[in-house]
Amino acid sequence: MTLLDGKLLSENIKSEIAAEVDLIRARGGKIPHLAAVLVGENPASEVYVSNKIKSCEQVGFKSTLIRRPADLGQEELLAIVQQLNNDPDIDGFIVQLPLPKHIEEEKITLAIDHRKDVDGFHPVNFGRMAQGMPAFLPATPFGILEILRRYNIDTAGKHCVVVGRSNIVGTPISILLSRKGYPGDCTVTLTHSRTVDLPGEVAKADIVVAAIGIPEFVKGEWIKEGAVVIDVGINRIADPSRKSGSRIVGDVDFPAAAPRCSYITPVPGGVGAMTVTALMLNTLKAAKGEIYPK
Ligand code: NAD
Q: Which residue among the candidates 5, 91, 117, 119 is catalytic per the annotation?
């Protein structure tokens, strides 16, 4: 069994991006600039946004953090989005989700200029992705593709079972892995809470992608010998043996699954580590006009 070390991969990719930024700077070009909008004080969002800003610093990007209180009005947030859409110095930006209940996330996502949508959540990017056109890919699926690519994992003709059909993970990764090319050309089964006999479906998989949000939900005995397991879950569970009283686990029962796998991502240090790095890759693409020529 080989661990798919997302942390190491992510450090390598960030060094590659930093080298490219150095070249841009040496040529007197414009330094890539990412902005993040954080509304309210959701503790998980605070951590995610601060990791994104830290990663920008690491790779040499310019970053701008716009913080607003939880009672920010929807119109005020839409005005911030418009301002970022129109600011020529901003190459890409994200509005951290979830937003406070009184703000309609869909309205905000739709208001973001798709050419700056480095989260890949805008339907224009999603549609282009589905049709195999150049697009900003959502960060988590993009990170998974990079893991498969950089570990040279064979995907053509493989049976991939995705567990969970969210718009940001399960659905896009099922589309991406079924597309023509590498990584892709898989035969994909997308499973969810209404799937009959989930263990039976997972047992057929050469590649399992678990994105459910339930700690250790996928059991070791469901996994076919030699399968590749990509665990997207990030769940905090109680652990009295730890000083903090808790620890992070994935959606897969790692101790039971790992011995049966050819490759598996650890949690933490697997997919999560790659997600922020994928956002950096998207920001670089935005700055270079690779998806939408400037
Ligand atoms: P979500 O809650 O939006 O979607 C969960 C999906 O799981 C749904 O489609 C649902 O149908 C399915 N599901 C729920 N119960 C099920 C069951 N009993 N059987 C089969 N399917 C079931 O979740 P999400 O946003 O895709 O996130 C999933 C997990 O991934 C969470 O733990 C989240 O924290 C984590 N996550 C990690 C990253 C990362 O960077 N690694 C990014 C996004 C999400």
A: 119
